[in-house]
Amino acid sequence: MAIKAVIFDYGMVLTAEPDAAAYAEMLLITGLTREQFEPLYWADRHAYDEGKLTGVAFWQKLIHDAGLALDARAVTELNRADARYWTTENTRMVRWQAELKLAGIKTAILSNMGDNVLESLLAAFPWVQNFDWCTWSFQLGMAKPDPRIYEYTLAGLGAKAEETLFIDDRGVNVEAARKLGMNALRFTTVENLAHELHASGFSQSIPSPQ
Fold this sequence. Notes:
Layout: E1 5-8, H1 20-30, H2 34-43, H3 45-49, H4 55-65, H5 72-85, H6 91-102, E2 106-111, H7 115-124, E3 133-136, H8 147-157, E4 164-168, H9 171-179, E5 183-186, H10 190-200
Parallel strand pairs: 1-2, 1-4, 2-3, 4-5
Helix pairs in contact: 1-5, 4-5, 5-7
């Protein structure tokens, strides 16, 4: 069946590598090593994406859990640096989305996203408005790989699962999409995506990224 819609993850698909300078700033503010920082950063990230924590609350909890004595100004600075960390652009994938639209393919973003990061990317990237539909997890109180968030996105996009291609960098999210009957590919590089589109036969109904 021909592909009539493509749903993109945001982080590490529509974005380039996260901003290294912003990451270094978070380490500097906290005074933590990378090895200390990483488990703390990811421990409550899913709760943040689900909207159970705001960006401010996320950093307040991390500071508490790390046993740090940092003030409200530090929380604000960490929140800003975190937003910059994820506000990067994969120009080739953004360009491909525009090509899909010109070819008559519907496009959407389905992203696990916290409030502060969304505010940053909307301010930085006007191309987000070019998508037919956007699903931001924190606004719904659920996040991938919860099947309900895929169903919500399909309904909003007005697309059938079997006519939709989902692209995400995380295998667990790709598998969740496939269980719902969606076509799904795990993103690594633009070159690998183009190869997989051709190998799967999808390039017969949609243009490949360049």
